[in-house]
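fold description:
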Amino acid sequence: MKVTSTELGTLDIKKLLVKQSVPASIGILFMSINILIDTIFVGQWIGSLAIAAVSVVLPITFLISSLGMAIGIGGSSIISRALGADNREKALFTFGNQLMMTLTLAIVSIILGFVFFDEVLLLFGANGKIMKPAQEFFLPVLLSVPFLALCMTGNTVIRAEGKAKYAMYAMLIPAFGNIIMDIVFIKVLNLGMFGAALATSISYFLCFLFIFWFFIAKSELKIHWQHLQLKRELVKEISSLGFVTFARQGVVSLLAIIVNHTLFIYGGEQGVTVYGIINRMLMFAYFPILGITQGFLPIAGYNFGAKNYHRVKETISKSIIAAAFMATLIFIIIFVFAEPIVRVFTTDSEVINITPQALVLVFTATPIIAVQLIGAAYFQAVGKAVPALLLTLTKQGFFLIPLVLILPNYFGILGVWIAFPIADFLATLVTGFFLRKEMKTKLVEV
């Protein structure tokens, strides 16, 4: 049966949320497994220092490629609302402008990355022995950034059309490709960090090929050359909404810089390795919550554009309930299996001794983060850039970074780990306040 964007405004919200969220969750799961297995492979086959190197490089590449994600999510909010209002021409021009913006900014970022190659690595925490493996991993991955950026843009547009299964396929392909090529390049050919980077880069290209095929063969958005012409008003709207996502990733990257340097001061290379394991688990364990959030975005955006505010409120409440249930389950699993989880990554006895406690502390406030994630996503979905930006930055920018800078002065390395749940709790309070106010005053049927 052919899936069309109009289903976003007609299907039962529960069924629609499942239909949109499950494929998104599966896609994020396999992307997370990809990152997780990548870390396990480099940790087991190359060494624990390699985990630290990957922890330094990935925030850099994600920062650059998040330009594509930012443009994708910003433009997709416009596309969802345009389709909801039956303004297909605006949707087409938005997509064309997204492509041009993503490609231009990705190429500029790569040039800057090569010019300031070592300086960027040092900035992100490639201290001491971490520098050499970080250099080997960074070079091939940097070259693949345009493909990754275009994939991130295209994937969000696919979801905006309501075709969540194809968005899922786009995430599965690089995940499986990377795992297979990791085995070939690291284990069989013994190419070390360069092999790990090569596998990652090729997997991004495979994803790009699939998304390119989708927009040629399956998409409702059949753009022509005129749609690639940049329009000032669209570029401005895409940028204002997309800046929310880019600012979030920028703050995440800034956080990585501060955490890596702080951990190096208080725990040396070992401290950075511990965070590398925890950070991979953060990416992996939150996959169902992030999937629900991704599924929520096009539903909320489409129905807001169609002025079906009762459906928007129903989507918010049901998304929060589903995400909170999954978040609680995640925390229970982490709490019970912390040490076995850590042993999967490394055989280093010192790392195994200190990581489980840190892992549990970082995940302590997980059961309440649903309000924070869905609340910030709502404002982005409906095109309210300023509150979306502020709420998105609340956890990492307004709370976590200051706490990471302050608490270690009193509690040492423990201060880094307890900063995470404190920041989650404070951010949830703030987001919950503004979301409740919005639902009571703005989402009212005329």
Remarks:
- Residues 232-285 form the longest helix (54 residues).
- The two ends are 35 Å apart (CA to CA).
- DSSP finds 17 helices and no strands in the chain.
